[in-house]
Amino acid sequence: QSALTQPASVSGSPGQSITISCTGTSSDIGGYNYVSWYQQHPGNAPKLMIYDVSNRPSGVSNRFSGSKSGNTASLTISGLQAEDEADYYCSSYGSSSSSFVFGTGTKVTVL
Amino acid sequence: QVQLVQSGAEVKKPGASVNVSCKASGYTFISHGMSWVRQAPGQGPEWMGWISAYKGKTTYAPKLRGRLTLTTDTSTTTAYMELRSLTSDDTAVYYCARGTITFGPGTIFDYWGQGTLVTVSS
Known about the structure:
The structure holds 2 protein chains of 2 kinds.
Chain A (H helix, E strand, L loop, with lengths): L8 E4 L5 E6 L12 E5 L6 E4 L13 E6 L2 E6 L8 E9 L4 E4 L3 E5 L1
Parallel strand pairs in A: 1-9
Antiparallel strand pairs in A: 2-6, 3-4, 3-7, 5-6, 7-8, 7-9
Chain B lengths: L2 E4 L3 E3 L5 E8 L7 E7 L5 E8 L5 E3 L7 E6 L4 E6 L8 E8 L11 E2 L3 E5 L2
Parallel strand pairs in B: 2-11
Antiparallel strand pairs in B: 1-3, 3-8, 4-5, 4-9, 5-6, 7-8, 9-10, 9-11
């Protein structure tokens, strides 16, 4: 199962909105409504930000939202803040290997 | 609060095995599963496998099948990961991550341990 494809970097100014894409295939993202997104600050463990495409766990800011169309999922961060600067990874189940696959990762920079 | 506390860093020689533990607290251990995820330096996460804390049922990533064994001890609410025949490609930070009680497309990783660095070097 190949890694899901994400842009290497995305940047924005404080207060702006940015969107990170995550492209897979019909065997993973396109086949299930179960995409998750994780935020990872340097030296820390990943933190779940979105699950089941668009659901936020308790405690996660509503500035984070998720969506999916076909084989591509997206994470949008609105009202960008300095604390949002981190690496972001998408994840989906892949039927071809009956296992989970993560994205290549996107570094978000707040200008 | 949910906490997953992992054992300390390990340095191993090629061909050796490594065991990493993950002590869970703050929730009903047998009501959830546990996944293991590793992350090589500068790389994205890689899912390794999942175990049901209740029945010990396991699912492994195809590339690690045969070298990886996941177990749990319900009496101490601890999950264990053993990886054998180590090579330099296994150098990574290893995480335990709480998951749903059953394994499938809807499994999410909602709480993570702090990570354990495993270095494989001669």
